[in-house]
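Sample pair:
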Amino acid sequence: MNKVLLIDDDAELTTLLQEYLVEEGYEVVTDTDGRAAIAAAAGNTVDIIVLDIMMPRMNGIEVLQRIRKLSQVPVLMLTARGDDVDRISGLNLGADDYVPKPCSPGELAARLRAILRRAGQPAAGASTDTIRAGQLVIHPGSRIAEWRGESVDLTGTEFSLLEVLARSAGQLVSKQEISKRAFGKPLTPFDRRIDVHISSVRQKLGLREDGQSWIQSVRGQGYQLLVD
């Protein structure tokens, strides 16, 4: 049973979401203070955190920033509908996904399942064989990535994206194909999640000797992982 920590100061919404998620088979713990999420991340006591951005004392962006200094536990952000700034800020800091409020319990449960699947299992249709692409080694079974002989600290979403690119190393992979293979769903218009997560992966891999990124983009088409 997956344990969910739900951080939100909206008591009515929290109760609704908790009751639904319990019916779906989750163990759910709730709190109104973001510091509980930081403590849970530090103690590795939950499987996933649902974190509202607009909270008193400490907002969700600051909480997420502190969590990512301690752990790669999956985090789903609850954002104000239409607030692209908060969404992009959350993704840049390592959030795995976001759901705009007000949200339906069913949508939230579906997003949680997808994130947990990415965090704990290989991408849909992928084998567990080791993937080697230049200096990158991917272990789908254990969800471990090694870059230049050292482990790379990736979120579940980042790992799924990098695995897709590694399986087609040296080839251009369209954003639509990345979304289908990494997330199991088609890319929707104006969705920038892939771009933001790829940007984070680029930072973790560093630059080539020529100063270029190891992950090249073709504007409006997709991404390519270089192997030399």
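Helices lie at 11-23, 34-43, 60-67, 84-92, 105-120, 156-167, 175-183, 193-205.
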